[in-house]
Design a protein that fits this description.
Helix content: 25-40%
Distance between the termini: 8 Å
Number of domains: 2
Structural class: alpha+beta
Number of helices: 7
Oligomer: single chain
Order of helices and strands: HEEEEHEHHHEEEHEEHEEE
Shape: globular
């Protein structure tokens, strides 16, 4: 796979493929993307956003994993998949736990060179942990299947991710693995079903409002969403399980300027940085990039 030099490939995936080759002196055998996901005002109603993470991987045969990340260029690491776990940087903890769990289950035991990247920072309020888990799990499963072995189903990969990180957000994992464009995923005790959720189809916009400044917090988000509602937003809610520095805002298309202006004026009046508004496309599930 030579995505790094394929001019028609998405720049993000070319970058991740090139980064793996630069870090580990070999091209990737597979590259996967996975969308960030968010809650729709309920713990069991979720959808995927059109901002991906990426994982590039190449197989090894010595039982080692070499991890690298564009966000942590000075903290690459080489770690064993079996035996006692080795010391590792904080950023690699969740990925390392997943790879060891998958190895115990028979997937990727030979080892892997892996490079990961997220397009969003923590300030955006959308968790990168679950999409990175899913991208990594799918990449390792792809390498496993390349040897004429059966490919583990996505439900099996979700279970392994849950085993490796039981404190993760299971609903977000489901969205990352099973979302469809223009659809939300409603989870219940009997499984899941898809519900149409396509704001542009109904003359609306879904925006991510991100407050700015090192000291920004839930209080700033409440002020912003209050003013957004006053200016015509239909609803606003936090994207994850805990309050943070961002909120999702659903608004009529023709109220976008009024909402942004109202929020900007309120923050400027207090000498605060004006929040950013980012458009969200309701996206599909994780996929292999060709």
């Amino acid at each position: 796979m030579d995505i790094a030099r394929r001019h028609t490939a998405d720049p993000l995936f070319r970058l991740v493929a090139f980064a793996l080759e630069s870090a580990h002196d070999r091209p990737p055998a597979t590259v996967w993307s996975a969308p960030h996901a968010f809650h729709l005002g309920s713990p069991r109603l979720v959808a995927a956003a059109g901002w991906p993470v990426a994982a590039a991987a190449a197989p090894r045969d010595d039982g080692l994993v070499r991890l690298s990340s564009l966000a942590h260029p000075a903290q690459s690491c080489e770690l064993p998949l079996t035996g006692p776990p080795s010391a590792h940087p904080d950023w690699a903890a969740r990925t390392y736990a997943l790879l060891r769990t998958m190895a115990r289950a028979g997937y990727g035991r030979g080892g892997v060179d892996l490079h990961i990247h997220s397009t969003l920072t923590a300030a955006a309020g959308l968790s990168s942990a679950e999409p990175l888990e899913c991208a990594v799990a799918l990449a390792v499963a792809d390498l496993h299947a390349a040897g004429s072995r059966p490919r583990p189903p996505r439900g099996r990969l979700a279970a392994l991710a849950r085993q490796a990180a039981p404190d993760g957000d299971e609903a977000l994992r489901e969205a990352v693995l099973f979302a469809r464009p223009g659809r939300a995923l409603l989870l219940d005790d009997d499984g899941s079903r898809r519900i149409r959720f396509d704001p542009p189809e109904n003359g609306a916009r879904l925006m991510l409002l991100v407050t700015r400044g090192e000291d920004a917090g839930p209080g700033d988000v409440r002020r912003a969403t209050d003013h957004a509602r006053s200016a015509g937003a239909l609803s606003a809610w936090r994207p994850g399980r805990e309050p943070g520095r961002s909120a999702l805002v659903l608004l009529p298309q023709d109220r976008l300027t009024a909402v942004r202006t109202s929020v900007a004026e309120e923050f400027r009046s207090r000498g605060r940085p004006v929040p950013r508004f980012l458009n969200i496309t309701v996206a599909g599930a994780a996929r292999r990039e060709e």
